Amino acid sequence: MTSTATRPDPVVAHGRLGIVQGTALYVASVLGTGLLVLPGLAADAAGPASVVAVVAVIALSIPLAGTFAALAARYPDAGGVASYVRRALGATAARMTGYWFYFGVCAGAPVVGVLGGEYVAAVARIDRAGVPILAAAIMLIPFGANLLGIRVAGWMQFVLTGLLLSVVVAVVSAAMPAVEASAFTPFLPNGWAGVGTAISLFVWAFAGWEVGTHIAGEFRNPRRVIPLATAIALVLTGASYLLLQIATVGVLGEGAAADSVPLLSLAQSVLPGFGTVAVGGVAAIVSVGVMNAYLAAFGKLGASLAANGDLPRWFQRGEEAGGIPRRALSLTMGVVAVYFALMLAVGLDLEPFILVHTSNMVSIYAVGMVAALLILRRWSVGWWMALVAAVLSAGLLALAGVKLVPSLVLALIAVGVTVWRRVRASRRAT
Q: GO cellular component terms (predicted)?
Protein backbone atom coordinates (compact mmCIF):
# COMPACT_ATOMS: atom_id res chain seq x y z
CA MET A 1 0.00 0.00 0.00
CA THR A 2 1.45 3.33 -0.99
CA SER A 3 1.75 6.19 1.43
CA THR A 4 -0.26 9.37 0.96
CA ALA A 5 2.93 11.36 1.56
CA THR A 6 3.37 11.64 -2.23
CA ARG A 7 -0.27 12.45 -2.93
CA PRO A 8 -1.93 15.85 -2.35
CA ASP A 9 -4.59 15.97 0.28
CA PRO A 10 -8.16 16.11 -1.07
CA VAL A 11 -9.98 19.41 -1.44
CA VAL A 12 -11.39 20.54 1.88
CA ALA A 13 -15.19 20.72 1.93
CA HIS A 14 -16.74 24.06 2.84
CA GLY A 15 -19.10 23.39 5.73
CA ARG A 16 -20.65 25.79 8.23
CA LEU A 17 -19.76 24.46 11.68
CA GLY A 18 -17.34 26.45 13.81
CA ILE A 19 -15.25 25.66 16.87
CA VAL A 20 -18.12 26.19 19.34
CA GLN A 21 -20.58 23.73 17.76
CA GLY A 22 -17.79 21.31 16.88
CA THR A 23 -16.49 21.19 20.44
CA ALA A 24 -20.02 20.69 21.77
CA LEU A 25 -20.60 17.73 19.43
CA TYR A 26 -17.27 16.14 20.37
CA VAL A 27 -17.91 16.58 24.11
CA ALA A 28 -21.38 15.06 23.78
CA SER A 29 -20.08 11.99 21.94
CA VAL A 30 -17.71 11.19 24.84
CA LEU A 31 -19.25 12.74 27.97
CA GLY A 32 -22.26 10.46 27.88
CA THR A 33 -24.28 8.20 30.13
CA GLY A 34 -21.07 7.03 31.78
CA LEU A 35 -21.43 10.04 34.07
CA LEU A 36 -24.51 8.44 35.60
CA VAL A 37 -23.12 5.01 36.48
CA LEU A 38 -19.36 4.69 35.98
CA PRO A 39 -18.09 6.53 39.08
CA GLY A 40 -19.82 3.96 41.31
CA LEU A 41 -18.83 0.94 39.20
CA ALA A 42 -15.19 2.08 39.12
CA ALA A 43 -15.18 2.72 42.88
CA ASP A 44 -16.54 -0.80 43.40
CA ALA A 45 -13.75 -2.27 41.25
CA ALA A 46 -10.76 -0.25 42.48
CA GLY A 47 -11.82 1.82 45.50
CA PRO A 48 -10.01 5.17 45.80
CA ALA A 49 -7.50 3.98 43.17
CA SER A 50 -10.30 4.39 40.62
CA VAL A 51 -8.95 7.95 40.34
CA VAL A 52 -5.75 6.46 38.90
CA ALA A 53 -7.85 4.53 36.38
CA VAL A 54 -9.43 7.75 35.14
CA VAL A 55 -6.01 9.37 34.69
CA ALA A 56 -4.77 6.31 32.81
CA VAL A 57 -7.71 6.28 30.42
CA ILE A 58 -7.36 10.01 29.76
CA ALA A 59 -3.75 9.32 28.74
CA LEU A 60 -4.83 6.37 26.60
CA SER A 61 -7.50 8.50 24.90
CA ILE A 62 -4.98 10.99 23.57
CA PRO A 63 -3.54 8.81 20.74
CA LEU A 64 -6.97 7.52 19.75
CA ALA A 65 -8.61 10.95 19.66
CA GLY A 66 -5.51 12.46 18.06
CA THR A 67 -5.49 9.88 15.27
CA PHE A 68 -9.14 10.44 14.41
CA ALA A 69 -8.56 14.21 14.49
CA ALA A 70 -5.59 13.88 12.09
CA LEU A 71 -7.64 11.74 9.71
CA ALA A 72 -10.74 13.93 9.82
CA ALA A 73 -8.72 17.12 9.33
CA ARG A 74 -6.96 15.74 6.23
CA TYR A 75 -9.81 13.73 4.72
CA PRO A 76 -13.15 15.42 5.58
CA ASP A 77 -15.60 12.85 4.23
CA ALA A 78 -19.09 11.86 5.37
CA GLY A 79 -18.04 8.20 5.30
CA GLY A 80 -15.71 8.79 8.25
CA VAL A 81 -13.69 5.74 9.24
CA ALA A 82 -15.21 3.71 6.39
CA SER A 83 -13.74 6.21 3.91
CA TYR A 84 -10.27 5.91 5.44
CA VAL A 85 -10.54 2.12 5.31
CA ARG A 86 -11.60 2.35 1.66
CA ARG A 87 -8.43 4.29 0.85
CA ALA A 88 -6.21 1.82 2.67
CA LEU A 89 -7.85 -1.60 2.47
CA GLY A 90 -10.42 -1.49 -0.32
CA ALA A 91 -14.17 -1.52 -0.85
CA THR A 92 -15.07 -4.71 1.02
CA ALA A 93 -13.26 -3.67 4.22
CA ALA A 94 -14.86 -0.22 3.93
CA ARG A 95 -18.30 -1.79 3.60
CA MET A 96 -17.64 -3.88 6.73
CA THR A 97 -16.64 -0.76 8.65
CA GLY A 98 -19.65 1.19 7.44
CA TYR A 99 -22.04 -1.62 8.36
CA TRP A 100 -20.42 -1.99 11.79
CA PHE A 101 -21.17 1.64 12.57
CA TYR A 102 -24.49 2.05 10.81
CA PHE A 103 -26.16 -1.23 11.78
CA GLY A 104 -24.06 -2.28 14.81
CA VAL A 105 -23.21 0.82 16.81
CA CYS A 106 -26.80 1.91 16.14
CA ALA A 107 -27.90 -0.71 18.70
CA GLY A 108 -26.69 1.67 21.40
CA ALA A 109 -29.28 4.33 20.53
CA PRO A 110 -32.24 2.74 22.37
CA VAL A 111 -29.89 1.92 25.25
CA VAL A 112 -29.17 5.62 25.66
CA GLY A 113 -32.89 6.42 25.45
CA VAL A 114 -33.88 3.83 28.05
CA LEU A 115 -31.05 4.82 30.45
CA GLY A 116 -32.18 8.42 30.29
CA GLY A 117 -35.81 7.39 30.66
CA GLU A 118 -35.03 5.22 33.71
CA TYR A 119 -33.28 8.10 35.51
CA VAL A 120 -35.92 10.67 34.67
CA ALA A 121 -38.67 8.26 35.79
CA ALA A 122 -36.86 7.57 39.07
CA VAL A 123 -36.28 11.23 39.81
CA ALA A 124 -39.79 12.34 38.79
CA ARG A 125 -41.34 9.30 40.50
CA ILE A 126 -42.99 8.15 37.29
CA ASP A 127 -44.14 4.55 37.08
CA ARG A 128 -41.64 2.35 35.22
CA ALA A 129 -44.32 1.67 32.61
CA GLY A 130 -43.66 5.21 31.41
CA VAL A 131 -39.97 4.55 30.64
CA PRO A 132 -40.58 3.49 27.00
CA ILE A 133 -42.47 6.74 26.36
CA LEU A 134 -39.67 8.80 27.91
CA ALA A 135 -37.08 6.83 25.93
CA ALA A 136 -38.97 7.43 22.69
CA ALA A 137 -39.09 11.18 23.41
CA ILE A 138 -35.35 11.24 24.13
CA MET A 139 -34.70 9.64 20.73
CA LEU A 140 -37.20 11.69 18.71
CA ILE A 141 -36.16 15.18 19.87
CA PRO A 142 -32.61 15.04 18.40
CA PHE A 143 -33.98 13.27 15.32
CA GLY A 144 -36.15 16.30 14.66
CA ALA A 145 -33.21 18.66 15.18
CA ASN A 146 -31.04 16.75 12.70
CA LEU A 147 -33.81 16.82 10.08
CA LEU A 148 -33.39 20.61 10.16
CA GLY A 149 -29.68 20.30 9.38
CA ILE A 150 -26.31 19.94 11.10
CA ARG A 151 -26.15 23.66 11.92
CA VAL A 152 -29.36 23.51 13.96
CA ALA A 153 -28.20 20.25 15.56
CA GLY A 154 -24.83 21.86 16.33
CA TRP A 155 -26.36 24.84 18.13
CA MET A 156 -28.75 22.53 19.97
CA GLN A 157 -25.72 20.54 21.07
CA PHE A 158 -23.97 23.70 22.25
CA VAL A 159 -26.91 24.48 24.55
CA LEU A 160 -27.16 20.87 25.83
CA THR A 161 -23.43 20.59 26.45
CA GLY A 162 -23.38 23.94 28.23
CA LEU A 163 -26.20 22.82 30.53
CA LEU A 164 -24.51 19.49 31.19
CA LEU A 165 -21.15 21.03 32.08
CA SER A 166 -22.88 23.63 34.27
CA VAL A 167 -24.61 20.94 36.34
CA VAL A 168 -21.40 18.88 36.64
CA VAL A 169 -19.44 21.98 37.71
CA ALA A 170 -22.14 22.88 40.26
CA VAL A 171 -22.18 19.40 41.82
CA VAL A 172 -18.39 19.02 41.85
CA SER A 173 -17.84 22.55 43.23
CA ALA A 174 -20.27 21.90 46.07
CA ALA A 175 -18.76 18.47 46.75
CA MET A 176 -15.06 19.34 46.83
CA PRO A 177 -15.14 21.14 50.23
CA ALA A 178 -16.80 18.02 51.68
CA VAL A 179 -14.12 15.60 50.42
CA GLU A 180 -12.55 13.64 53.31
CA ALA A 181 -8.90 12.55 53.03
CA SER A 182 -9.72 9.48 55.14
CA ALA A 183 -12.00 8.24 52.33
CA PHE A 184 -8.88 7.55 50.22
CA THR A 185 -7.46 4.95 52.61
CA PRO A 186 -6.79 2.17 51.99
CA PHE A 187 -5.96 3.38 48.50
CA LEU A 188 -5.70 -0.03 46.80
CA PRO A 189 -8.27 -2.27 48.51
CA ASN A 190 -8.48 -4.62 45.51
CA GLY A 191 -4.89 -4.31 44.28
CA TRP A 192 -3.77 -3.27 40.82
CA ALA A 193 -6.08 -5.85 39.27
CA GLY A 194 -8.97 -3.72 40.47
CA VAL A 195 -7.43 -0.69 38.77
CA GLY A 196 -7.24 -2.71 35.56
CA THR A 197 -10.95 -3.49 35.79
CA ALA A 198 -11.76 0.17 36.40
CA ILE A 199 -9.66 1.13 33.37
CA SER A 200 -11.68 -1.29 31.23
CA LEU A 201 -14.88 0.36 32.42
CA PHE A 202 -13.68 3.87 31.67
CA VAL A 203 -12.40 2.91 28.21
CA TRP A 204 -16.03 2.70 27.17
CA ALA A 205 -16.74 6.08 28.73
CA PHE A 206 -14.07 7.67 26.55
CA ALA A 207 -15.21 6.00 23.33
CA GLY A 208 -16.89 8.22 20.75
CA TRP A 209 -14.03 10.08 19.10
CA GLU A 210 -14.87 8.47 15.74
CA VAL A 211 -18.22 10.30 15.62
CA GLY A 212 -16.59 13.54 14.49
CA THR A 213 -15.05 11.89 11.43
CA HIS A 214 -18.48 11.60 9.78
CA ILE A 215 -19.25 15.31 10.08
CA ALA A 216 -15.72 16.55 9.26
CA GLY A 217 -16.92 17.98 5.95
CA GLU A 218 -19.43 20.16 7.81
CA PHE A 219 -16.68 22.27 9.43
CA ARG A 220 -15.70 25.61 7.90
CA ASN A 221 -12.00 24.84 8.25
CA PRO A 222 -11.44 21.16 9.18
CA ARG A 223 -7.63 21.43 9.35
CA ARG A 224 -7.82 24.07 12.05
CA VAL A 225 -11.13 23.43 13.83
CA ILE A 226 -11.07 19.63 14.23
CA PRO A 227 -7.73 19.32 16.09
CA LEU A 228 -8.65 22.29 18.30
CA ALA A 229 -12.15 20.98 19.04
CA THR A 230 -10.70 17.55 19.85
CA ALA A 231 -8.12 19.02 22.23
CA ILE A 232 -10.72 21.14 24.05
CA ALA A 233 -13.08 18.17 24.29
CA LEU A 234 -10.28 15.99 25.71
CA VAL A 235 -9.61 18.55 28.45
CA LEU A 236 -13.29 19.11 29.30
CA THR A 237 -14.30 15.44 29.35
CA GLY A 238 -11.15 14.32 31.14
CA ALA A 239 -11.50 16.99 33.82
CA SER A 240 -15.21 16.21 34.29
CA TYR A 241 -14.67 12.48 34.81
CA LEU A 242 -11.60 12.97 37.01
CA LEU A 243 -13.11 15.60 39.32
CA LEU A 244 -16.39 13.67 39.55
CA GLN A 245 -14.50 10.51 40.52
CA ILE A 246 -12.53 12.35 43.24
CA ALA A 247 -15.73 13.88 44.60
CA THR A 248 -17.61 10.56 44.49
CA VAL A 249 -14.93 8.68 46.43
CA GLY A 250 -14.10 11.57 48.77
CA VAL A 251 -17.70 12.33 49.77
CA LEU A 252 -19.51 8.99 49.55
CA GLY A 253 -16.57 6.89 50.76
CA GLU A 254 -17.22 3.15 50.81
CA GLY A 255 -20.86 3.83 50.02
CA ALA A 256 -19.89 4.83 46.46
CA ALA A 257 -19.04 1.22 45.62
CA ALA A 258 -22.51 -0.03 46.54
CA ASP A 259 -24.43 2.84 44.98
CA SER A 260 -26.11 2.21 41.62
CA VAL A 261 -26.83 5.94 41.18
CA PRO A 262 -23.75 7.63 42.69
CA LEU A 263 -24.32 10.96 40.95
CA LEU A 264 -27.78 11.19 42.49
CA SER A 265 -26.42 10.36 45.96
CA LEU A 266 -23.57 12.83 45.57
CA ALA A 267 -25.89 15.63 44.47
CA GLN A 268 -28.33 14.93 47.32
CA SER A 269 -25.43 15.00 49.81
CA VAL A 270 -24.05 18.37 48.82
CA LEU A 271 -27.06 20.08 47.25
CA PRO A 272 -30.12 19.05 49.28
CA GLY A 273 -33.35 19.63 47.42
CA PHE A 274 -31.66 20.71 44.22
CA GLY A 275 -29.70 17.46 43.88
CA THR A 276 -32.55 15.27 42.70
CA VAL A 277 -33.69 17.80 40.11
CA ALA A 278 -30.10 18.31 38.95
CA VAL A 279 -29.50 14.60 38.34
CA GLY A 280 -32.80 14.23 36.52
CA GLY A 281 -31.76 17.13 34.32
CA VAL A 282 -28.33 15.61 33.74
CA ALA A 283 -29.88 12.29 32.72
CA ALA A 284 -32.13 13.95 30.18
CA ILE A 285 -29.42 16.30 28.87
CA VAL A 286 -26.84 13.52 28.53
CA SER A 287 -29.23 11.19 26.73
CA VAL A 288 -30.57 13.76 24.27
CA GLY A 289 -27.06 15.14 23.70
CA VAL A 290 -25.51 11.75 22.93
CA MET A 291 -28.36 10.90 20.55
CA ASN A 292 -28.00 14.29 18.84
CA ALA A 293 -24.28 13.82 18.20
CA TYR A 294 -24.59 10.24 16.99
CA LEU A 295 -27.57 10.92 14.72
CA ALA A 296 -25.55 13.59 12.91
CA ALA A 297 -22.90 10.92 12.21
CA PHE A 298 -25.40 8.19 11.27
CA GLY A 299 -27.16 10.43 8.76
CA LYS A 300 -23.98 11.44 6.94
CA LEU A 301 -22.60 7.88 6.99
CA GLY A 302 -25.83 6.43 5.58
CA ALA A 303 -25.77 8.91 2.69
CA SER A 304 -22.08 8.13 2.06
CA LEU A 305 -22.73 4.37 2.04
CA ALA A 306 -25.48 4.95 -0.51
CA ALA A 307 -23.14 7.09 -2.66
CA ASN A 308 -20.68 4.17 -2.73
CA GLY A 309 -23.39 1.63 -3.56
CA ASP A 310 -23.33 -0.06 -0.15
CA LEU A 311 -26.93 1.06 0.48
CA PRO A 312 -29.61 1.79 -2.14
CA ARG A 313 -28.74 4.96 -4.09
CA TRP A 314 -32.03 6.53 -3.03
CA PHE A 315 -30.51 7.30 0.40
CA GLN A 316 -27.61 9.29 -1.09
CA ARG A 317 -29.30 12.70 -1.02
CA GLY A 318 -27.68 15.05 1.52
CA GLU A 319 -24.25 13.39 1.43
CA GLU A 320 -22.53 16.58 0.26
CA ALA A 321 -21.20 19.17 2.73
CA GLY A 322 -24.09 21.33 3.90
CA GLY A 323 -26.66 18.82 2.70
CA ILE A 324 -29.30 17.36 5.01
CA PRO A 325 -29.41 13.53 4.72
CA ARG A 326 -33.10 13.24 5.60
CA ARG A 327 -33.57 9.93 3.79
CA ALA A 328 -30.57 8.33 5.50
CA LEU A 329 -31.73 9.75 8.85
CA SER A 330 -35.15 8.18 8.30
CA LEU A 331 -33.49 4.83 7.62
CA THR A 332 -31.43 5.29 10.78
CA MET A 333 -34.53 5.84 12.85
CA GLY A 334 -36.06 2.76 11.23
CA VAL A 335 -33.09 0.67 12.36
CA VAL A 336 -33.26 2.24 15.84
CA ALA A 337 -36.99 1.48 15.97
CA VAL A 338 -36.31 -2.21 15.22
CA TYR A 339 -33.74 -2.40 18.03
CA PHE A 340 -36.12 -0.54 20.35
CA ALA A 341 -38.96 -2.96 19.55
CA LEU A 342 -36.67 -5.91 20.28
CA MET A 343 -35.65 -4.27 23.55
CA LEU A 344 -39.28 -3.86 24.57
CA ALA A 345 -39.90 -7.51 23.66
CA VAL A 346 -37.18 -8.66 26.10
CA GLY A 347 -38.40 -6.46 28.93
CA LEU A 348 -35.89 -3.58 28.52
CA ASP A 349 -32.90 -5.89 29.03
CA LEU A 350 -30.03 -3.64 27.92
CA GLU A 351 -27.11 -6.08 28.03
CA PRO A 352 -27.56 -7.76 24.59
CA PHE A 353 -27.77 -4.38 22.88
CA ILE A 354 -24.77 -3.00 24.75
CA LEU A 355 -22.76 -6.03 23.60
CA VAL A 356 -23.76 -5.46 19.97
CA HIS A 357 -22.77 -1.80 20.28
CA THR A 358 -19.42 -2.36 21.97
CA SER A 359 -18.28 -5.27 19.79
CA ASN A 360 -18.77 -3.16 16.68
CA MET A 361 -17.01 -0.16 18.25
CA VAL A 362 -13.93 -2.28 19.01
CA SER A 363 -13.89 -3.61 15.45
CA ILE A 364 -14.12 -0.09 14.01
CA TYR A 365 -11.24 1.14 16.17
CA ALA A 366 -8.98 -1.76 15.22
CA VAL A 367 -9.53 -1.50 11.47
CA GLY A 368 -9.53 2.29 11.59
CA MET A 369 -6.10 2.41 13.21
CA VAL A 370 -4.67 0.00 10.62
CA ALA A 371 -6.03 2.28 7.90
CA ALA A 372 -4.50 5.32 9.64
CA LEU A 373 -1.06 3.69 9.66
CA LEU A 374 -1.33 3.14 5.92
CA ILE A 375 -2.62 6.54 4.79
CA LEU A 376 -1.10 9.03 7.24
CA ARG A 377 2.37 10.35 6.45
CA ARG A 378 4.85 7.92 7.97
CA TRP A 379 6.71 9.14 11.08
CA SER A 380 4.37 12.13 11.45
CA VAL A 381 2.79 12.88 14.83
CA GLY A 382 -0.52 11.46 13.61
CA TRP A 383 1.19 8.27 12.42
CA TRP A 384 2.86 7.70 15.80
CA MET A 385 -0.43 8.26 17.59
CA ALA A 386 -2.04 5.75 15.22
CA LEU A 387 0.66 3.21 16.04
CA VAL A 388 0.04 3.52 19.77
CA ALA A 389 -3.73 3.44 19.25
CA ALA A 390 -3.43 0.34 17.01
CA VAL A 391 -1.65 -1.55 19.80
CA LEU A 392 -4.30 -0.47 22.30
CA SER A 393 -7.09 -1.45 19.89
CA ALA A 394 -5.55 -4.90 19.45
CA GLY A 395 -5.72 -5.29 23.22
CA LEU A 396 -9.39 -4.32 23.19
CA LEU A 397 -10.06 -6.93 20.49
CA ALA A 398 -8.44 -9.59 22.67
CA LEU A 399 -10.56 -8.52 25.65
CA ALA A 400 -13.76 -8.60 23.57
CA GLY A 401 -13.36 -12.27 22.58
CA VAL A 402 -16.68 -13.96 21.77
CA LYS A 403 -18.48 -10.62 22.08
CA LEU A 404 -17.26 -9.92 18.54
CA VAL A 405 -19.86 -12.29 17.06
CA PRO A 406 -22.27 -9.46 16.04
CA SER A 407 -19.51 -7.62 14.16
CA LEU A 408 -18.45 -10.91 12.55
CA VAL A 409 -22.00 -11.40 11.24
CA LEU A 410 -22.04 -7.91 9.71
CA ALA A 411 -18.59 -8.52 8.20
CA LEU A 412 -19.89 -11.70 6.53
CA ILE A 413 -22.85 -9.75 5.12
CA ALA A 414 -20.40 -7.19 3.67
CA VAL A 415 -18.37 -9.99 2.06
CA GLY A 416 -21.61 -11.51 0.76
CA VAL A 417 -22.42 -8.22 -0.99
CA THR A 418 -19.01 -8.30 -2.68
CA VAL A 419 -19.53 -11.89 -3.84
CA TRP A 420 -23.03 -11.09 -5.13
CA ARG A 421 -21.72 -8.09 -7.08
CA ARG A 422 -18.96 -10.12 -8.67
CA VAL A 423 -21.35 -12.90 -9.65
CA ARG A 424 -23.74 -10.38 -11.17
CA ALA A 425 -20.91 -8.66 -13.04
CA SER A 426 -19.66 -11.95 -14.46
CA ARG A 427 -23.17 -12.85 -15.65
CA ARG A 428 -23.48 -9.52 -17.39
CA ALA A 429 -20.08 -10.01 -19.03
CA THR A 430 -21.25 -13.31 -20.49
A: plasma membrane
Cα distance between residue 143 and residue 128, in whole Å? 24
Spell 130-145 as b/e; 16+ CB within 10 A means b: ebbebbbbbbeebbeb
Contacts of 341 (CB under 8 A, 6+ apart): none
Taking the C-alpha atoms of residue 330 and residue 167, their distance in angstroms, rounded to an integer, is: 33
Q: In angstroms, what CA-CA distances link 253 with 123, 174, 182?
A: 23, 16, 9
Rounded Cα distance, 177 and 322, in Å: 47
The one-letter code for the residue type at 71 is L
Superfamily of domain 13-429: Amino acid/polyamine transporter I (1.20.1740.10)
Whether pTM exceeds 0.85: no
Burial of 177 per CB tally in 10 Å (0-12, 13-18, 19+)? exposed
Give 308-352 pLDDT, tens digit per residue: 889 999 999 988 777 889 999 999 999 999 999 999 999 888 878
The rounded distance, in Å, linking the Cα atoms of 296 and 290 is: 10
First-to-final CA distance of the chain = 32
Domain ranges in the chain are 13-429
